[in-house]
Each structure stands twice: as structure tokens, then as C-alpha cells.
Amino acid sequence: MEINKKNIKKFAVTGARPTLGRVLQEAAERDKNICVITADVSTSAGLERYKKSLPEQYIDVGIAEQNMMSIAAGLAKEGFRVVTTSFAPFQSMRCLEQIRVNYGYMELPVVMVGLASGIYHSYLGNTHCCFEDVAILRSIPNIAVVTPADGAEIVKAVESALTYKSAVYIRLIENKGLPIVYEEDFDFAIGKANLIRDGRDIAIIANGTMVHASLELAKLLEKNGISSKIVDMHTVKPLDTEMLDRLCEHQLIVTIEEHNIIGGLGSAVAEYLAPKRKRPRQLLFGIHDFYPHAGNYEDALEQCGLLPSQMLVEILKEMKE
User: Fold this and answer.
1) Cβ(130)–Cβ(94) below 8 Å
2) DSSP-derived pairing of the beta strands 81-87 and 58-60
3) By Cβ atoms counted within 10 A, which residue in 14, 51, 118, 165 is the most buried?
4) Taking Cα atoms as reference points, which of 56, 54, 143, 53 lies closest to residue 91?
5) Which pLDDT belongs to residue 60?
6) How far apart are CA 164 and CA 166, in angstroms?
């Protein structure tokens, strides 16, 4: 799919899931070997146009996510490029044994899309939120874990995942209006982070919705005399360790994610940096191992300390120590 200013604006307006449906439809129209399987979430996954135009490349198994993963494995074994779609907690946790055996152990290259991850749907309660999925799935061999930052990166991530050597989990996080991070076409590769903003003092590593939040945070830091580099670490596994090596020249590394700080992006970065003799301090922002109270998205972010104004206070405090 072409990444241009018109399409980028359209992705931002329509949101993550319609963007997913659009890129899958265009890909499947070009390649009849692509098959999309859903667990009774065609509308929620933005697949209404897809299923009407490509019925022979579409399967709805109903509310039977574990069966969906096994069917996908069988199709992948026969050479199809399969994409599974369900809400993130059901995709990543309800189907965990099927994922581990069929995609991890058997190394079948299925693309899994976890819808509405993070805490955007916190008004529905924590049964409909998902901030454990990265920790769970990156512990399984042969699975890449990708969290796109905006609509354009969703397109790039899906297209890359369809040709990737192993299974890929794409974590879609909702946000009002899906703020734009990439304003023009850009290079994307699973496992290779993107430099979004250059800076000299601290390095901010983020993914998903927190990349745009990092840009807002950088403006606040600039007013306080701190220059910050921003890296979109869209792939948590395999991690771009070459980028991390280059970031070690900074005074402080800050990781920001809409995920539990245990097992997510911050943990992955800390695990890599820990054995190094010379490394900067690291400050982790995310969900601090608790379940936020139900409420709107802004309330949930505030409970988790993920508003740019809150993170600014903590970073300034850390820089003074």
C-alpha cells in the first residue's frame, strides 16, 4: 500500500482497525495465498469490506479462538499465509498453548493481530484491556512481537509480517484519532528500530501510542533545557541491539510503553543492558504491575503515570540525582 500524505491522514481519521482491514484487503487482492481468519470480530477488526470482496480468503470460526489458531496452523502447514484476528487478551492468552506448540515449537509463520491492546478500553474493565501480551509472547521462541506507533506503521508492519520468516504478533493499541507519528513514507523492517527525533542528553525508547506521547514529552523537556533523542522500538522481539549500543552514550535511557513494566519493552532493554560494564541509568514508564480502575482513557493513563506532564516530573527528578 502506498504511504503518502493523503493515506496517512486517512489512517489517522479512521483508526487502527479500519487501517488493518484496508491493508489486508489490498494484500489479499494481490496474493490469493493470503487467508484471514477471525473469531466473530469481522466488524471490530475492520474486515467488513474484506469479507464481502474476498469470501474465499476469509474464515469466521465464531467465538472459538483456540480453534481459530489450530485452523490457522493447518493452513500455514499447507503453505498459506494466514492472519488471525481477535481482541488482544483472547488472541494472546486464551490461545497460548496453541501458539506455543503450533507457532513456537512447530515454527509455523502465522501473523497474529491482537486488537485493542493496552488500556484504551479501560472503561470496559480489565477483562477487555491487555497489557500482559508482550511479556507472554516474547517468552516463546520463534515469535516476533511488533507494536506499531500509528496508521502508516500498521500498514508497514502487516506487509512485513506477511513475508517474515516466523510467526509475528502485531499489537494494535487504540487511541483517539490515532495521532500521526510518520508524516511521510519511511523505511521499516521487523527488528530494526527507527530514529524519530535526534537529541544529545537522554534517549527515549517507546513504541505504540507512547511514541507520539514521547514527542509531546520531548517538547516539555526542551523547555527545561533537556535535549532528547526518540527511538520507535516497534519490535520488542527481536530487539534492535545495535540501536541500543548507540544509545549508551546518553546520560539516561527512558523506556515508555502501554504495557506492564514487567516483561515488556523496558524489561527487554534492561535485560540487554544489564551485562554491560558501561551503561546509562534506565527509567521505566509503563503500567506498574497493577490493574487500573475502570474509567476513560485519559484517567487510565494518569493512573499509570503515562501522561507527558507526569513523566516530565520523574525525568527531571532523575536527572538531578
Assistant:
1) no
2) unpaired
3) 118
4) 143
5) 97
6) 6
Whether 10 and 3 have beta carbons less than 8 Å apart is answered as no
Measure CA 177 to chain center.
Answer: 17
- What per-residue confidence (pLDDT) applies to 175? 75
Q: Is residue 103 a contact partner of residue 92, using CB atoms and an 8 Å limit?
A: no
**Per-chain mean pLDDT for the chain:** 96
Does 176 have pLDDT greater than 90? Answer: no
For residue 275, the SS3 value is coil
Which contiguous run of DSSP H or E holds residue 287?
A: strand 281-287
Q: What is the pTM for the complete model shown?
A: 0.96
Grouping H, G, I as helix, E, B as strand and the rest as coil, residue 83 is strand
Rounded Cα distance, 270 and 264, in Å: 10
Q: Residue 26: helix, strand or coil by DSSP? A: helix
Q: What distance lies between CA 80 and its chain's CA centroid? A: 24
pLDDT at 230 exceeding the cut of 80: yes
* Closest C-alpha to 118, from 271, 302, 287: 287
> Which pLDDT score is estimated for 273?
97
